[in-house]
Amino acid sequence: MSAEPAFLLHRRPYRETSALVDLLTLHHGRIRAVAQGGQRPTSKSRQRLQPFTPLLVTWRGERELKRLNLMESRGATALLAGEGLLCGFYANEIATRLLPLELPAGNVFAFYTALLEALPVPAARALALRRYEWSLLEVLDATPRFCTPDGGALDPHAHYRFDAASRAFIPAAKGLDGRTLRYIDHHDWQEPTLSNALKAVMRAALAPHLGTTALRSRELMRDLAQRRQR
Question: Where do the DNA replication/recombination mediator RecO N-terminal domain residues begin and end (predicted)?
Answer without folding.
Answer: 4-72
